Amino acid sequence: MLELILFSSLNGLLYGLLLFLLASGLTLIFSMMGVLNFAHASFYMLGAYFGYQISRWVGYWPGLLLAPLLVGGIGALVERYGLRTVHKHGHVAELLFTFGLAYIIEELVQMVWGKIPVDYRVPELLNFSAFTLFSTTYPAFRMFMLCMSVVVFIALLLLLTRTRVGLIIRAALSHPNMVGALGHNVPMVFMLVFGVGCGLAALAGVIAGPALVTYPAMAASLGPILFVVVVVGGLGSLPGAFIASLVIGLIQTFAVAVNVSLADVLGHVGITLTRDSIGGDLWMATVAQVAPIIPYMLLVLVLIFRPKGLMGDRDT
Amino acid sequence: MNRHAYLLPWIAAVVVVLLLPYVFSSGAAITMMSLMGFAIIFALSFNMLLGQTGMLSFGHAVYYGLGGFMTAHALNVIAAGKWPIPLPVLPLVGGLTGLSFAILFGWVSTKRAGTAFSMISLGIGELVAACSLILRGFFGGEGGISTSRTATLRLFGISFGPQIQVYYLIAAWCLLCMAAMYAFTRTPLGRMCNAVRDNPERAEFVGYSTQMVRFIAFCVAGFFAGVAGGLAAIHYEIVTSSVVGAVPSGYVLLMAYIGGVAFFIGPIIGAVLMTLLQISLSDYTGAWQLYVGVMFVLVVMYAPWGLGGLVLMHAPLLSAGTFRRVLPAYALVALPSAMLFAGGVLLVETSHHLLVKATEGPAMRLFGVGYEANSPMVWVAIVVLLVVGGVLLKRLSPKVSEAFHAARQDALSKRIAA
Fold first, then answer.
1. In which residue ranges of chain B is pLDDT below 70?
2. CB-CB contact of B279 with B242 (8 Å)
3. Whose CB among A298, A300, B14, B24 lies 3.0–4.6 Å from B29's, allowing a Cys bridge?
């Protein structure tokens, strides 16, 4: 039991930190431009695929640097020549633009790398088990993922709170017109933030790609979870996104490990239910089975009862 | 003009729908027209939200899919119990299912507007999609729910076995729903929906609850989506859990938006076009979804009123007789547009051939011309077509909009003079 709790917390923490790498960019982009970037998870996928391709040519480590740079560049171009064009048509048009972009990226990835998962391998250097606790071994690559996420998190925190660039970005979040009036190039800041956000997503893709599966549906399966994180944490709030990422990461990981259904619980208090009772499958579904639903339940509940999210300062 | 002139388009629609199977009589064509029938209802119901009330839903397929499932279950129950219920009323079951779930979920989601509404609709969509894999009894697991449409009560000896009979059933429902949804836009409530879309604050000031207006629009849209789902269940005779997922929800958004959400007729155009593309284009190219995606993004970027809007923009010019004045400008951009199009298609098809069909060797055919996909000449041609076409189009497009605005100005002043 202790073993389960320990490893689930470790995996949950890791998953949560990965989510935060993506959610931080998404929430920054949203609070600056008011655009909920539907294609954010697609940039994560592009990062994983670019990393895979580079690892095939020159090895894993160059990909760790090059893939995020490439994807960040693509993201900046998308902002400059795509989003800025549709901006005049309003927020719905911007949302739809990123929706279409996600669709195109998925089709392109399928075309270039095929519909089946690619063989993105853990680098040889890290292909050993870091430690063994009780009877379970923990791969070194996962420890590396954990460290990378923490490093990026701290770097982001320092960048935003301790540097001049971070100061301008934070100012542009709440008072873009004033920042513009002070002589800063606000559209440039937007482009930069969009590019960096996409680059961070790509970095998450490169470090998650070998451990999770790199396949064309990885964006579509992660994208909605990201929205949950951003909305639950409070739109535009980085600390909120951080807490929500960890909470959802832990919930998802722990739920998968719990094999209890409503029928089991009610069985203890003397009510016997089978698949044939009224409601049938509902009683028999285990917590592990309903794990994919929990984040969305959380999303709907938060939007109804606390539209600002955990730490947000404005309504969604 | 007499006062029944507004009936003319509807009479024309009825005649067209009745005659279509005689013009396109092949089995494939009749199947395709059946698909168009419920796609039109689905797209129009989606547009009640996006186009008319300003609510962007990412989970509209929930009501479509649940309507389909309930219709399939109802068909099975009717067949097992030999109930005296004829098939043509069954889409009502789908509609009422869509309505009930829209009341349930709409009560939650229409509390909010804008991006929050979109997010809730996405969450509910994912929720139902995830549930469909857990509640195997209702959703039938991987295999879905199969049914048979012929085991219901027969009226006038119609069995609904042959596809042509199903076509007429779908066509009748489609016309009925189109008329009902159009009528809805003309009611005071329909007008209030537009007000809530355009300026919710003022709508509140007039004394309406924007939340109530959104809720009612959501429920009505859910009803029609359910009818479309019911017809789909009758057509396919099987419903699988994929119909409640994110893919059909996104697909209906593409249909409605590409057609044009600002006009009633837009989603109809979109549904017909997308069904046509889905079926005929997929015969020619494996990359058809990429084309659809690119088309969608282009529409969002350059033609936010959709293809229907592009066509309807010219109506005042035609009626005022100034249309021929824009023709020279259009002729001017025809060549660069064709170059861009050809370059784009060549790029996609050639890369598709090289990447996906690598085992078949480099020889390929496009537009009836055979060539080697890996020859440098082809790639030079692609770059030339794209760059030259793109530069020319960028240079010439201001002239087109200039000519168009001049012609429209003339048309307007003529109308004022008249």
1. 1-2, 153, 157, 418
2. no
3. B24
Taking CB atoms and an 8 Å cutoff, what residues of chain B touch A114? 356
Which of B47, B57, B119, B294 should we substitute to test contact with A (largest number of A Cβ atoms within 10 Å)? B119
Q: What is the tens place of the pLDDT at every residue in A61-111?
A: 888 889 999 999 999 999 988 888 888 887 888 888 999 999 899 989 988
Query: What is the per-residue pLDDT across A179-218, written as a single tens digit (0 to 9) for each?
Result: 888 888 888 888 888 999 999 999 999 988 888 888 888 8
Q: CB distance from B355 to chain A under 8 Å?
A: yes
**DSSP H/E element including B364:** strand B363-366
For chain B, domain boundaries = 5-288, 315-417
B358 touches A at CB < 8 Å: no
pTM surpassing 0.80?
A: yes
Q: What is the DSSP letter of B323?
A: G
3-state secondary structure of B145: strand
Interface test with B, best of A96, A110, A274 (most B CBs within 10 A): A96
Residues of A in contact with B290 (CB under 8 A): 104, 107-108, 111
User: pLDDT tens digit string along B35-64?
Assistant: 899 899 999 999 998 888 888 888 899 999
How near does any CA of chain A get to the CA of B134, in Å?
A: 7
Looking at residue A274, its pLDDT comes to 60
- Using the Cβ of B250 and the Cβ atoms of chain A, whether some distance falls under 8 Å is answered with yes
Kindly indicate whether the domain formed by B5-288 is annotated with CATH number 1.10.3470.
Answer: yes
Reading the block at residue B253, the tokens are 């958004």
Distance to chain A for B364, nearest Cα, Å: 17
What are the tokens at B377?
């000449």
Q: Which of residues 39-98 of B touch A (CB under 8 A)?
A: 50, 54, 56
Chain B contact for A232 (CB, 8 A cutoff): no
DSSP-based helix, strand, coil % in chain B, nearest 5: 80, 5, 20
**Contact residues on chain B for A111, CB-CB shorter than 8 A:** 287, 290, 351-352, 355-356
Structure tokens at B320: 């005022």
B305 lies within 8 A of chain A by CB: no
pLDDT of residue A277: 55
**Interchain CB contact of B359 with A (< 8 Å):** no
Query: Which two structure tokens, joined as six digits, stand for B131?
Result: 């549930």
pLDDT one-digit tens code per residue, A225-277: 888 898 888 877 788 888 999 999 998 888 877 777 766 776 776 666 665 55
Full DSSP string of chain A: -HHHHHHHHHHHHHHHHHHHHHHHHHHHHHHHH----TTHHHHHHHHHHHHHHHHHHT-HHHHHHHHHHHHHHHHHHHIIIIIHHHGGG-HHHHHHHHHHHHHHHHHHHHHHH-SSPB--PPPGGG-SEEEEETTEEEEHHHHHHHHHHHHHHHHHHHHHHHSHHHHHHHHHHH-HHHHHHTT--HHHHHHHHHHHHHHHHHHHHHHHTTTS-B-TTHHHHHHHHHHHHHHHH-TT-HHHHHHHHHHHHHHHHHHHH---BHHHHHHHTT----TTSTTTHHHH-BHHHHTTTHHHHHHHHHHHH-TTTTT-SS--
Query: pLDDT value at position B40?
Result: 93
CB contact under 8 A, B115 and A296: no
Show residues of chain B in contact with A85, CB under 8 Å: 301
The larger pLDDT score, comparing residue A229 to residue A316, is at A229
